[in-house]
TrEMBL record:
It comes from the Bacteria. CDD domains: UDP_G4E_1_SDR_e (cd05247). The lineage of its organism: Bacteria, Pseudomonadati, Pseudomonadota, Gammaproteobacteria, Alteromonadales. The keyword Mitochondrion does not apply. This is UDP-glucose 4-epimerase. It comes from Shewanella corallii. Homodimer. Belongs to the NAD(P)-dependent epimerase/dehydratase family. Pfam families: GDP_Man_Dehyd.
Length: 335
């Protein structure tokens, strides 16, 4: 299939483009480069031998999206383009609602006009808020705790209502837990602009000397060692989940949401230990107070994805840490 990949120059989108190419699909990347570098295209070409079509543009430009969808004769869309920083969304909610919600609405309008009605959407476990129970399954209540999370809930509602109004639509919402890792080649990885918000890129930057130490946000949670527990999933396992969703014959019409996680939770200290085990580098740490908005524990029940998408994660914590380390040592300053 020809697949429009919005946000395809970003972390998860670029890795998914590699998985799409490997599966025989043809990605067409649409990205405004607000949080990524055009050099990512060279890395995709270096790894895969194919340089996908790339159109620089904003998903809020409905006409441009329509021209790309029809011009490239796209069959489906994988929609990654969004702003994703929880803290920033609390400070600038309208920026997040405009970019993520209005942007998605613009995309859906362009798709309907172009008669392209198959979409895979990047959602997040953030839609569950502070969980009532773990592991978290898709029956868990959806109730975000920040504008970013609400923007994901709102787009899922758009998709659900659209599919309910017109059976020609097929939408799959993939609720990612904590994506980490990098392509095994070491030529592509998480390349955050500025100071990383997330744990693993921060640890990796400490390991190569770009940061002095890791601040651990809270060691008084009711967990195995007091630090926060999350479900870390390899970005290439996540990418494979998108290809499965795209090719899914079990779900030809309507809206469907499922978790993409490993089903296993690890604490911050366990992640630090895993990284040291593969890198040989001791990570200086300082225990600080809890980060506002953080939850204690979160990990997925991935059973629905296994049943409906015939997908489950394959890569373990050691390979996640080893792939991050390879990427970070290849490109200490990112690309
Ligand atoms: P990223 O920032 O690396 O990639 C997002 C890409 O979208 C960037 O290349 C950016 O330039 C582009 N973009 C943003 N707004 C755009 C717009 N208006 N028009 C065109 N392009 C635009 O982020 P990522 O980590 O790859 O995340 C991809 C998706 O997965 C996002 O929707 C995010 O909310 C979701 N997600 C990410 C995580 C995570 O921890 N990384 C977890 C759950 C869900
Ligand atoms: C993981 C753990 C921190 C950094 C976020 C977003 C979520 C999704 C994934 C988009 C927590 C601890 C972290 C640091 C630390 N993104 N930590 N020191 O918060 O689970 O999820 O990214 O959808 O929406 O909320 O991931 O990597 O920020 O934190 O101690 O410098 O590491 O407290 O326990 P999080 P994270």
């Amino acid at each position: 299939m020809k697949v429009l990949v919005t946000g395809g120059m970003g972390y998860i989108g670029s890795h998914t483009c590699l998985a799409l190419l490997e599966a025989g699909h043809e990605p067409v990347i649409f990205d405004n480069l607000s949080n990524s570098s055009a050099l990512v295209l060279e890395q995709i070409a270096k790894i895969s031998g194919v340089k996908p079509a790339f159109i620089e543009g904003d998903i809020r430009n409905t006409d441009k999206l329509y021209q790309v969808l029809t011009g490239y004769q796209c069959d489906a869309v994988i929609h990654f383009a969004a702003l994703k920083a929880v803290g920033e969304s609390t400070e600038h909610p309208l920026r997040y609602y405009d970019n993520n919600v209005a942007g998605s609405l613009s995309l859906l309008r362009a798709m309907d006009r172009a008669a392209v009605r198959r979409i895979v959407f990047s959602s997040s476990a953030t839609v569950y808020g502070d969980p009532d129970y773990i592991p978290i399954d898709e029956a868990h209540p959806v109730r975000a705790t920040n504008p970013y999370g609400w923007s994901k809930v709102m787009v899922e509602q758009q998709l659900s209502d659209l599919c309910g109004s017109d059976p020609r639509w097929q939408a799959t919402s993939l609720r990612y837990f904590n994506p980490i890792g990098a392509h095994e080649s070491g030529e592509l990885g998480d390349n955050p602009l500025g100071v990383p918000n997330n744990l693993m890129p921060y640890i990796a930057q400490v390991a190569v000397g770009r940061r002095a130490k890791l601040e651990i946000f809270g060691a008084d949670y009711p967990t195995v060692d007091g630090t926060g527990v999350r479900d870390y999933i390899h970005v290439m396992d996540l990418a494979a989940g998108h290809v499965k969703a795209l090719d899914n014959d079990n779900h030809q019409s309507g809206f469907f949401a499922c978790n993409l996680g490993t089903g296993t939770g690890y604490s911050v200290l366990q992640m630090v230990a895993a990284f040291t085990a593969v890198s040989g580098v001791q990570i200086p740490c300082e225990i600080k107070s809890r980060r506002p908005g953080d939850i204690s524990s979160s990990f997925a029940d991935p059973g629905l994805a296994r049943r409906i998408l015939n997908w489950q994660s394959q890569r373990d914590l050691t390979s996640m840490a080893a792939d991050i380390w390879r990427w970070q040592t290849n490109y200490p300053a990112g690309i």
